[in-house]
Design a protein that fits this description.
This protein has 131 residues and is mainly alpha-helical. 53% of the residues lie in helices and 9% in strands. Helix 3 runs antiparallel to helix 5.
Amino acid sequence: MKRVLDYIREKGKLPFDYTFVQGDPTKKYQELYWVSLDFSVYHEVMEAKEDHNFYIALLERMRDLFHHTYGNHVQITGEKDTFQRWLTNSDADLTHKANELCKAYFKVHNKDITLAMAKKLIRGGLFSDDN
């Protein structure tokens, strides 16, 4: 069941967390076990974007990732800030960006988010001015 849920979350890009719940055997009509799905994490992370501490930690991690990966070797003709171009390109280094987002979120909020959730947020425009 865990593999199926992880697959749905990752491949289906569905932002949810899940827990396995064991029922109370003394309750007559209650199931012995079930899976509880929680979709609230996505909204919490989007609200965290407005949190100054989270956003500063996230941008520091992104800048470190960019400089570690590319150094000062990236030049785009007519582009003054290659970091900004890289950051707003949701396809560029998506997995690495998502890992750093997860770490920044945990650092500030002491809560985990999934890699799939982080990727969805980045693809959804977390770093763009449109949000």
